[in-house]
């Protein structure tokens, strides 16, 4: 008998034990460590829960070597994202040093009014993300600047992060350049542009509602800032940096590369290199101040710019809030993010290999009798996969493969499945603190997912609207009778 045949399928209890363990440990981590739970406690919770799943797997006939292969494979899926993370760390470091981010903050303080700032931030991120097809790049560039502007205006960083993420994911979702927007129709068997048009029925009402909420929050915001403090902050920025519109060239280069469909890692890396070059050209005074007494100009430039790539910058202005605003970045700032991603994907890989995720789906599918309950089940499965595998791509691919045949059997157009996969799989990923997307957003925007998640209104409304549409039967596209009969006869 082969080793494969010796492996037992997990029982529902088997599948629940690692999940319950994870929920309990994550709850304890948040209780005892608060916002710092993502800096070690959550990683330990994920690894212990993975260990529990491994023990169950061994009990069911699996051996450590095949589980280890599954873990390595799961981690390997994140290597592309890890490279992007390190490149983004370098980009933030060099863009702070070059004055690119400070310039965006400086002009943003002059043109953005607190009353409509949140809504404007959401719209700006939506436009950029739609243009380049990347919520991650949008957050790391425009998003970082908007967080700085919010702090300068005395506005909430958490609400600002929610607006940035809402806009970035809306734009990413309807952009033909987005990886997830291409992935969902490929898995479901629908056509890309038909998929995008069909998503408008859920995305447009969702973003419109989110913008109304952001406008309401902005008009009712009581800021701790005034014209004098904004003028002072602008003056301090001018004292630290040589500010001009030329400093925005690195941003323009990155946007052009993204629009030209240059892959994310080389595009961001080139953006970081341009930022380093721009720092040498435009920020010589700042570089010499940061060189710790080094009088040789060439040596000072090499040390400071090189450090910005791997360890970011640390600027002392005499204003602690401004110091926090202008300091950070570097590859080292992403190490904790990489740590959490690897732990989360290891846990998810073990659960998938042992068949525990499929066990949940089989039980859910058995109770999904109506179209509404089927769509609700798909949404729940996407969110559950995001919770357990910590990866938005897995949250699209796995439910898509598992539900595709069922949608066809029920005469539903593949567009219904592809839209639902995006409404739940892509959108909810930044709401889960240990998910790769949330870890990334937290690392870039410097706001805990536990703080911003309640303000990502678009990301909450969209999946809820998808379920409502399913139950009321609104805009649910069905297959033609001829296609439906062909599917039935071949199934």
Automatic annotation (TrEMBL):
Task: List each copy of the Na+/H+ antiporter NhaC-like C-terminal domain by range.
Answer: 167-474
Task: Cite a single Pfam family from the UniProt record.
Answer: Na_H_antiporter
Superkingdom is Bacteria
Mind telling me what this protein is named?
Na+/H+ antiporter NhaC
Q: Does the keyword Ribonucleoprotein apply?
A: no
Leader sequence range is none
Q: Which family does it belong to?
A: Belongs to the NhaC Na(+)/H(+) (TC 2.A.35) antiporter family.
Q: Which InterPro entries does UniProt cross-reference here?
A: Na/H_antiport_NhaC, Na/H_Antiport_NhaC-like_C, NhaC_Na-H+_Antiporter
Membrane topology is:
Multi-pass membrane protein
Q: Does the keyword Mitochondrion apply?
A: no
Q: Where in the cell is it found?
A: Cell membrane
Give the organism the record lists.
Answer: Colwellia marinimaniae
Keyword line: Antiport, Cell membrane, Membrane, Transmembrane, Transmembrane helix, Transport
**Chain ranges passing through the membrane:** 12-33, 39-58, 70-95, 115-132, 144-170, 198-220, 241-259, 265-283, 295-313, 333-351, 363-388, 452-472
């Amino acid at each position: 008998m082969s080793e494969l045949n010796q492996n037992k399928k997990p029982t529902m209890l088997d599948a629940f034990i690692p999940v319950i363990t994870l929920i309990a440990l994550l709850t304890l981590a948040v209780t005892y460590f608060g916002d710092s739970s993502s800096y070690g406690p959550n990683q330990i919770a994920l690894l212990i829960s993975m260990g529990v799943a491994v023990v169950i797997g061994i009990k069911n006939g699996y051996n450590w070597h095949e589980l280890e292969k599954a873990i390595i494979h799961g981690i390997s899926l994140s290597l592309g994202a890890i490279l992007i993370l390190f490149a983004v760390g370098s980009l933030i470091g060099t863009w702070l040093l070059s004055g690119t981010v400070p310039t965006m903050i400086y002009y943003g303080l002059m043109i953005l009014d607190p009353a409509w700032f949140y809504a404007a931030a959401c719209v700006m991120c939506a436009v950029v993300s739609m243009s380049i097809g990347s919520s991650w790049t949008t957050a790391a560039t425009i998003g970082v600047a908007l967080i700085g502007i919010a702090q300068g205006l005395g506005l909430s960083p958490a609400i600002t992060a929610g607006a940035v993420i809402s806009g970035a994911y809306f734009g990413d979702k309807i952009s033909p350049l987005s990886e997830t927007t291409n992935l969902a129709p490929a898995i479901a068997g629908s056509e890309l542009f038909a998929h995008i048009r069909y998503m408008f029925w859920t995305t447009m009402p969702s973003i419109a509602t989110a913008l109304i909420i952001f406008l309401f929050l902005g008009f009712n915001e009581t800021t701790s800032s005034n014209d004098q403090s904004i003028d002072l902050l602008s003056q301090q920025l001018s004292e630290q940096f040589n500010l001009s519109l030329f400093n925005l060239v690195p941003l323009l280069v990155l946007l052009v590369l993204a629009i030209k469909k240059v892959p994310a890692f080389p595009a961001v890396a080139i953006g970081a290199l341009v930022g380093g070059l721009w720092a040498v050209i435009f920020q010589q005074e700042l570089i010499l101040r940061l060189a710790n007494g080094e009088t040789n100009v060439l040596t000072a430039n090499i040390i400071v710019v090189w450090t910005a790539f791997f360890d970011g910058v640390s600027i002392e202005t005499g204003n602690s809030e401004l110091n926090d605003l202008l300091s950070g970045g570097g590859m080292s700032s992403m190490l904790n993010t990489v740590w959490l991603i690897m732990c989360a994907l290891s846990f998810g890989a073990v659960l998938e290999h042992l068949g525990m995720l499929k066990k949940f789906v089989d039980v859910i599918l058995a109770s999904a009798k109506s179209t509404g309950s089927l769509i609700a089940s798909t949404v729940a499965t996407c969110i559950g996969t995001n919770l357990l595998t910590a990866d938005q791509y897995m949250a699209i691919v796995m439910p898509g493969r598992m539900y595709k045949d069922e949608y066809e059997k029920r005469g539903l157009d593949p567009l219904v499945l592809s839209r639902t996969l995006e409404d739940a799989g892509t959108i909810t990923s930044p709401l889960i603190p240990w998910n790769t997307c949330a870890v990334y957003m937290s690392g870039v925007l410097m706001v805990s997912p536990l703080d911003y998640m309640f303000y990502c209104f678009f990301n909450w409304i969209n999946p809820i609207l998808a379920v409502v549409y399913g139950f009321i039967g609104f805009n649910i596209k069905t297959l033609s009778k001829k296609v439906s009969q062909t599917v039935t006869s071949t199934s």
